[in-house]
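Q: what sequence does this backbone want?
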């Protein structure tokens, strides 16, 4: 089973950062889903992908679907600092430039308010 490590912190009031380390795929996506469910009532969620070594379509779909659901609730989700493999997946899937993934936390913060 792939190893996935998550850490959560508050970047500022109303903004949670979830850092992903390891591989995010079907086998462990539930762990991230659980962490995201704990953000109910938090206006902004930033996902740190700098230590995410692998992301499959399940993990990517989780990020996209959560972002869409949060937007419907008037909340925001953005991810930042993707590793080379993750950045390539984002590019290939056409998600670059959609407002979901940013190069730095500063860009993600500006985009989320």
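A:
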């Amino acid at each position: 089973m792939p190893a996935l490590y998550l850490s959560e912190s508050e970047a500022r009031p109303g903004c949670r950062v979830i850092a992903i380390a390891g591989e995010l795929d079907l086998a462990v996506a539930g762990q991230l889903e659980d962490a995201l469910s704990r953000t109910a009532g938090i206006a902004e969620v930033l996902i740190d992908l700098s230590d995410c070594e692998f992301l499959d379509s399940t993990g990517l779909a989780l990020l996209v679907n959560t972002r869409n659901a949060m937007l419907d609730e008037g909340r925001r989700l953005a991810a930042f600092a993707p590793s080379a493999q993750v950045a390539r997946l984002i590019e290939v899937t056409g998600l670059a430039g959609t407002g979901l993934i940013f190069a730095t936390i500063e860009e993600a913060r500006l985009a989320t308010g």
